[in-house]
Amino acid sequence: MSSHSNSMATEIRKAVVKMQRRGTNVGSAMSVADILAVLYFDVMHIPSPADPARDRLVLSKGHAASALYAVLALKGFLEPALLESFLQDGSDLTGHPCAANVAGVDVSTGSLGHGLPIAVGMALAARHDGLAHRIFVVQGCGEMQEGSVWEGAMFASRLGLDNLTLIVDANNLQGYGRAQDIQPIETFAPKLRAFGWDVLEVDGHDHAALCEVLKRTPNGKPVAVVARTTKGKGVAEMEDVLGWHYFSVPPEKVQPFLDELDEGR
What does the pLDDT look like over 83-119, one tens digit per residue? Predict the structure, then answer.
């Protein structure tokens, strides 16, 4: 199980490296690759993007869209050749995911802090309609500074939405520095518990650990997983370096980075 998702995570990162010749946020996409691989290949039930009984994903950190597109291609929901069109004029593969353009994108995102409140509404609607699917939200650690996140967290707890899971991609780097210097990551878990959530903390690159926490049986509370990750994971030059929030991958570095990812399997 985890060995398959590990290989998928490598393929996601390789696709991201090739796509990000044209754009920024490669570090953010690399940090979330393991989380998305485990969700899509080990945890979520998604036989097709149109199945009404499918689980849903809200990629609140929409700037990591390239990783989501790579996953959708690996799942067979998106033609792999389309990844080459990422960020080109007229392409459906925009820098932030658009639900109107791409099958498998459940929510258009990009404005940080909006994903969790939207997912709360989706989870409430599912319960109202008697549907058993789950809603997963992936957001960045910098997003935890948004007030709308805490409004959504408060409401989800009040409603007992145990079909809702929030995963914080805690790579400790945001737009202009360390998230830790603005809002310490170790405060997330106690705050969410105080808001009435079931909270777990995990290594966000450990597939077995991610599987274990994400497959837990709901217990009447929404679930939050604080996943400690490394920005730029998989390529030594990128790892934990703020600049890769903004850099594109230089053409001459694409193949060396791909080789490094293959060697790290």
Answer: 999 999 999 999 999 999 999 999 999 899 999 999 9
Q: What is the 3-state secondary structure (H, E, C) of the chain?
A: CHHHHHHHHHHHHHHHHHHCCCCCCHHHHHHCHHHHHHHHHHHCCCCCCCCCCCCEEEECCHHHHHHHHHHHHHHCCCCHHHHHHCCCCCCCCCCCCCCCCCCCCCCCCCCCCCHHHHHHHHHHHHHHCCCCCCEEEEEECHHHHCHHHHHHHHHHHHHCCCCEEEEEEECCEECCEEHHHCCCHHHHHHHHHHCCCEEEEEECCCHHHHHHHHCCCCCCCCEEEEEECCCCCCCCCCCCCHHHHCCCCCHHHHHHHHHHHHHCC
Q: pLDDT tens digits, residue range 29-62?
A: 999 999 999 999 999 999 999 999 999 999 999 9
pLDDT on residue 176: 84
Quick one: pLDDT at residue 177? Answer: 84
Question: Do residues 164 and 221 lie in contact, with contact meaning Cβ atoms separated by under 8 Å?
Answer: no
Q: Which residue has the higher pLDDT, 176 or 167?
A: 167
Mean pLDDT within 148-163: 97
Q: How far is Cα 87 from Cα 63, in angstroms, rounded to an integer? A: 12
Global pTM?
0.96
Q: Are 172 and 178 spatial neighbours (Cβ–Cβ below 8 Å)?
A: yes
